Amino acid sequence: WSAETLSSLKEPEQNDFLQRVSSLLHSTEKSTGAARSKLNLLHYLCTVAVHQEIASWLIRSQLFPVLIQQLRVSTNWDVRARVAQVIALLASHTSELGANVPVSEAILLLTDIIRENFRNSKLKQSLLPALGELLYLIAREEDKRGDPRECWVVPSTAYTMIMRSLREGVRFFVSS
């Protein structure tokens, strides 16, 4: 469905859509076809996540925790990279962040994955944008509301990983 079609769905249809997407993402089948299906679904989510209304709906829905879970359990790095891209697009295009959205969990998980695979520059290039977009989303929300929210705690290791990655990037470009 297009973003316009998704935005016109009634609540039962929205719930059905989210349930089907979540079910497909939760699939534990290890075949190449299953990974390709997940990648195609995640690519679709990337296309609809650039619409503000859809991004706001999806980030506040049951889908966001499912995306975090996929980031945690997926063994396919392409799937992980695409999940991070969906998360980055949702964070970038959402109009408002609800207090119950587990953004801190996503930030912590992204930070841990980057730290554990710090020498993998391809992985860092796919995960750092999501981390940055989530941090910017929190800063934007706190600025709008005028007070920091305890539910959006950002671990200091997130900033450390970003700074280390920036230093490594500077060294890479200087030595090239």
From TrEMBL:
Keywords: Kinase, Transferase
Gene3D superfamilies, alphabetized: Leucine-rich Repeat Variant (1.25.10.10)
Protein name as annotated: ULK4 kinase
Taxonomic source organism: Ramphastos sulfuratus
Top-rank lineage group of the source organism: Eukaryota
GO molecular function, one term: kinase activity
Coiled coil segments of this chain: none
